[in-house]
Specification:
This protein is mostly beta strands. It contains 3 helices and 38 strands. Helix content is 4%, strand content 42%. It binds 2-acetamido-2-deoxy-beta-D-glucopyranose (6 copies). The site of one 2-acetamido-2-deoxy-beta-D-glucopyranose has 4 residues, from loops. Keywords: Glycosidase, Hydrolase, Signal, Vacuole.
Length: 558
């Protein structure tokens, strides 16, 4: 039953504290898994140490995450037969801490006419009496997308190893103008004060993304509501929608059915290879979701992550009163590389997700459990970085690191003027790569860097001036991440909604063999990159702090 334990991780930590770079690094932790880890690293340099991965094969969307009777569950889209997409089922893993995972038997796989051609994404809802129910998309005998239900066979088993499909499947079908190819990914359902359940399903109607709304009294018989929860004329198909409340006054997460005057609602949809979200106020009485901004309406489109991150899903963790976000991070190498590696796809580090202080966007932060993997802290204090200088962070193994840096900027007036045509942060980052010297920036971190910097992944900032405001640009430049040429090395970028006159610029990066997951401005902008460094052993590479300006690196939050 238990296939493998994820080996305990080895991680190095760099802190930047005080008027200084305080580096906190940890040596390798000896463990019973040490020898197998070393073996694994020799022929699998790109397999991660502390990100969620199945032992082999293809993985994409996270499905139905939940907390049940002391156990965290993660299901995911999985191909049991290879490292490319196909034969999709729900694989199942369980954890007590969201860090160490056990892979158990597959939960949902084709058995019925309503899912015989595939068991695609969906969500879990915990029904009254602590009864989980999964809604998922099945691909039926006609290759139509339909929505099905499954429930645990034995509610006393906290691992929920076996699932039974509803005899009423499919519960929802593509009728009345719904395209049977564009109708999938039911959300976690929520209950209004009227005790009626609501759920949305992603679709595209008349060329536009739409969240089709259903209601049900018993969770089995669902009625489609004429008006969608929301739709948008500026996007196509919405995959993996998510709809949930966030608190406007507390730093706790909110259960999916909760709703009061201190909540706002988030609608997330996956399209154009990214996860976009909008905020609004939701009234269950008439299921009116009145939005503050709309998808693709402004230059500043809100995304969970401005790098690689797709088909994500949140759940409410009632044990810790927080909402946690999981997202699928795909590969940047080729399909034949994936076949050679024997696997494809990662899950992001689970992130807590909250409304920002301004109420205008969400902020994300790695769950705090990940910090218990830190050992051997390494720290730097009071480092002034000169223009063009690179500060090496010695003494840590760089293939697995958790880096926190904070930059204090002395002379903001020197910032370059932002040309009003520079509205696309990703384009700006790719024009002003890490190697292009500016007036205030680039400054940041080089991950997976060889001594001579031939290979480096640069996560950095630039500051611009626009009238009386300052604009903070965050970039992740993969163009020199590997001497391998065939890789996707797209540069990513985001503007961070912050005023550098009033706060220092912080960066946290989780580095793990072939992924760099970065959180800028205390989690207001996130960028995830996949990289495949080749020169030498990635364990020997050194992350360094780069700055082309005088600055002080200073304290981070505890
Ligand atoms: C249900 O699960 C519990 C806990 O694992 C186990 O003790 C019990 O035997 C199971 N019942 C059945 C019918 O399998
Ligand atoms: C939803 O609520 C908003 C704001 O209260 C209102 O302007 C809008 O007309 C409502 N929409 C529907 C369909 O009732
Ligand atoms: C996966 O990665 C490829 C190559 O890097 C990219 O072109 C594609 O858009 C990605 N797919 C998604 C769903 O993000
Ligand atoms: C590393 O530093 C963090 C933060 O200061 C601290 O909580 C942790 O206990 C330290 N770990 C070790 C092994 O010193
Ligand atoms: C940089 O160092 C790597 C080894 O880490 C070596 O393979 C490469 O040739 C060097 N490049 C240059 C330009 O010196
Ligand atoms: C930056 O950090 C330093 C050291 O903690 C602090 O003294 C300073 O006030 C901070 N600057 C801003 C703008 O918050």
């Amino acid at each position: 039953m238990l296939l493998t334990w994820k080996p305990p991780m080895e991680i190095s930590v760099i802190w930047v504290v005080g008027f200084c770079v305080l580096l906190v690094a940890h040596g390798a932790q000896a463990s019973s898994h040490e020898s197998s880890r070393n073996l694994q690293e020799t022929d699998q340099p790109y397999r991660t140490g502390y990100h969620f991965q199945p032992p082999k094969n293809w993985m994409n969307d996270p499905n139905g995450p939940m907390y049940y009777k002391g156990v965290y569950h993660l299901f995911y889209q999985y191909n049991p037969y290879g490292a490319v997409w196909g034969n999709i089922i729900w694989a199942h893993s369980v954890s007590y801490d969201l860090v160490n995972w056990v892979h158990i038997d597959h939960a949902i796989y084709p058995t019925q006419p309503s899912d015989i051609n595939g068991c695609w994404s969906g969500s879990t809802t915990i029904l009254p009496g602590e009864k989980p129910a999964i809604l998922y998309t099945g691909i039926d005998t006609k290759n139509h997308q339909v929505q099905n239900m499954a429930v645990p066979k034995n509610l006393s088993d906290p691992l929920l190893r076996e699932w039974i499909k509803s005899p009423y499947n499919p519960l929802m079908t593509p009728i009345d103008g719904i395209d049977p190819d564009l109708y999938r990914d039911p959300t976690t359902a929520w209950q209004g004060p009227d005790k009626i359940w609501r759920v949305i399903v992603g679709s595209q109607i008349d060329g536009h993304g739409r969240a089709i709304l259903y209601r049900s009294k018993d969770f089995v018989s669902w009625t489609r509501i004429d008006s969608p929860l929301h739709s948008s004329g500026k996007t196509e198909m919405w995959e993996c929608p998510d709809f949930f409340p966030v608190s406007t006054r507390s730093s706790n997460g909110v259960d999916t059915s909760s709703q009061d005057k201190y909540t706002k609602h988030v609608l997330k949809a996956s399209f154009n290879h990214h996860d976009y979200y909008i905020l609004g106020s939701y009234k269950p009485a008439n299921d009116n979701f009145s939005v503050e901004t709309n998808f693709m309406d402004s230059g500043m489109d809100l995304r969970y992550d401005y790098g690689k991150f797709y088909a994500s899903k949140t759940f409410f963790d009632r044990a810790m009163n927080r909402r946690i976000l999981w997202g699928w991070i795909n590969e940047s190498d080729s399909e034949s590389d994936d076949i050679k590696k024997g696997w494809s796809g990662l899950q992001s580090i689970p992130r807590t997700i909250l409304l920002s202080e301004t109420g205008k966007q969400l902020v994300q932060w790695p769950i705090k459990e990940i910090e218990k993997l830190r050992f051997k802290n390494l720290s730097f204090h009071d480092k002034k970085l000169k223009s063009g200088s690179v500060l090496e962070v010695p003494g840590i193994t760089a293939s697995q690191a958790d880096v926190e840096v904070s930059f204090e900027l002395p002379n903001l007036e020197d910032a370059e003027i932002l040309d009003p045509s520079w509205t696309d942060p990703q384009l700006l980052c790719s024009q002003k790569k890490a190697s292009v010297r500016g007036k205030l920036g680039p400054f940041g971190l080089l991950a997976f860097a060889t001594k001579n910097l031939t290979e480096q992944t640069a996560i950095y900032f630039r500051i611009f001036r626009s009238n009386h405001n300052y604009i903070v640009l965050m970039c992740s430049d993969q163009s020199r991440s590997s001497v391998r040429e065939e890789l996707d090395k797209t540069t990513y970028g985001a503007f961070i909604d912050m005023d550098p006159r009033h706060e220092n610029i912080t960066l946290r990066s989780l580095i793990d063999h072939s992924i760099v997951e970065s959180f800028g401005g205390e989690g207001r902008a996130c960028i995830t990159a996949r990289v495949y460094p080749k020169l030498g052993n990635s364990r020997a590479s050194i992350p360094v702090c780069i700055q082309q300006w005088h600055l002080k690196c200073q304290n981070l939050k505890a």
